[in-house]
Design goal:
It is built from 14 helices and 5 strands. It is mainly alpha-helical. A 3-stranded parallel sheet has the order 2-3-4, sandwiched between helices. Strands 1-5 form a two-stranded antiparallel ribbon. Helix 4 links the parallel strand 2 and strand 3 (73-78). Residues 1-25 and 159-183 have low confidence and may be disordered.
Length: 338
């Protein structure tokens, strides 16, 4: 996934960002912050490139579910167009879209509360992608610590639900383009079990390096048991010098909502072998209900398609309105579009 994560406008996290201060006045800063406070819109997306793993779950999906209680305007997209950068078969793409939809529903995403849709079913994404590619200087974006150019069109086309674009000047538009994707920093980089120097990935060649949300209890136990650690038996949290053990601690913390200090105190009389068993118990307790729900939901592709169709219709209402406003600002709204 893009890893995929919840959207926050840059000003929500860094209201005094020095880079943006070079380009925008205090008035624009104030206006942008006020807009965000008045209309908080959450957007995130996940690529249909395989079954999500626990890194995706802890870094994003778990929070997607929690965020449903914090905002009225939530958009979660299956970003199928982004996934086309790596060639895949037609059958694989269709299966993956159904799989990821079923996983999201099994995790607790509510399609009645949240707009859950397939990216390619909202063509305004690609239309705005062209505009942004034409007018946004890449050299300016490269000054930012993190930026995802292919996500900007997603953010912009859906960001202002019921917010009149006519009230926004060019500076505000430029400002909003500088939006970043933030994931939970604690769990954004859950490590590969076989090589804790690298991030856990759906595209990793070794399936033993990751736990997928659909893994059986026995598969979960075996993968954690075989996880690479080190020669020290004591359980301590030191990501730089002990990445393998620290990775297990992070997973334990994410599944049980505890701190690394608390996890280490629970493991004070354990060696890493026994601690792996404790971590496996925590993972199984959290993932087993999700797996069972997934297996039931995945059987009904008709219902899954209805969920995506419903979400696309809701997303297009907002996207179409905003795209029309953008066309007006650009001066290209001569002919009407259906």
């Amino acid at each position: 996934m893009r890893n995929l994560s919840s959207l926050r406008c840059l000003f929500c996290a860094y209201p005094k960002n020095k880079f943006l201060s070079k380009y925008f006045s205090n008035q624009v800063h104030t206006e942008a912050e006020q807009i965000i406070k008045e209309k908080r819109v959450i957007f995130s997306g996940i690529q249909p490139t395989g079954i999500p793993h626990i890194g995706n779950y802890l870094g994003a999906l778990k929070h997607w579910v929690e965020l449903q209680n914090e905002s009225d305007d939530i958009y979660y997209s299956i970003v199928d167009l982004h996934s086309l950068t790596i060639p895949k078969s037609r059958d694989f793409m269709q299966d993956s879209i159904f799989n990821i939809t079923a996983c999201l529903l099994a995790c607790g995403v509510d399609p009645d509360t949240t707009v859950l849709y397939q990216q390619s079913s909202v063509p305004e994404h690609t239309q705005l992608s062209w505009v942004i590619g034409c007018i946004v200087p890449v050299n300016r974006l490269k000054h930012l610590p993190q930026w995802k150019v292919k996500y900007m069109c997603n953010v912009f086309v859906l960001f202002f639900l019921q917010m009149p674009f006519q009230k926004l000047g060019c500076l505000q538009i430029k400002l909003l383009i500088f939006s970043l994707l933030f994931t939970d920093p604690t769990f954004a980089r859950i490590r590969d079990f076989r090589d804790p120097r690298v991030k856990m990935s759906k595209s990793s060649p070794s399936i033993n390096g990751r736990i997928e949300l659909t893994d059986t209890d026995s598969e979960i136990r075996l993968k954690i048991k075989r996880a690479v650690t080190d020669s020290t038996s004591q359980v301590t949290y030191d990501p730089e010098n002990r990445p393998g053990v620290s990775n297990l601690i992070q997973i334990h913390c994410g599944m049980c909502d505890i701190t690394p200090e608390k996890a280490c105190s629970l493991a004070c009389n354990m060696d890493t072998g026994k601690y792996k068993s404790l971590v496996a118990d925590a993972v199984i307790e959290q993932l087993s209900p999700i797996r069972e729900k997934y297996l039931k939901i995945r059987k009904d592709e008709v219902k899954l398609k209805m969920v995506l169709d419903h979400g696309a219709k809701r997303a297009r209402v907002v996207a179409k309105s905003n795209w029309e406003s953008i066309r007006e600002l650009l001066g290209i709204n001569i002919a009407e579009i259906s």
